[in-house]
Design a protein that fits this description.
The protein is an all-alpha fold. Helices cover about 80% and strands about 0% of the residues. The longest helix has 26 residues. The two termini are about 20 Å apart.
């Protein structure tokens, strides 16, 4: 459901033009791929528990931004 509603949120809530929604979402996917590319290094240097804590806080931050940023209809 995240990707289904994300385009609508970016267009109506954030104010991104309709023709820019897909490139912005693609940029987010590239950022996720880059994160996965460095995951092995981060796991080795920081450890499993601290890496998972950072990941959980990252998800909480993303969903907090979606929850608290204004959504204009």
């Amino acid at each position: 459901m995240y990707f289904y509603w994300c385009g609508d949120y970016l267009q109506k809530g954030v104010g991104i033009l309709g023709n820019w929604v897909m490139p912005v979402m693609s940029l987010g996917q590239v950022a996720e791929i880059a994160t996965m590319a460095f995951l092995g290094y981060v796991l080795k240097s920081l450890g499993w528990r601290f890496t998972m804590t950072i990941g959980i806080l990252g998800h909480a931050g993303r969903f907090a931004a979606f929850a608290f940023l204004p959504y204009r209809k």
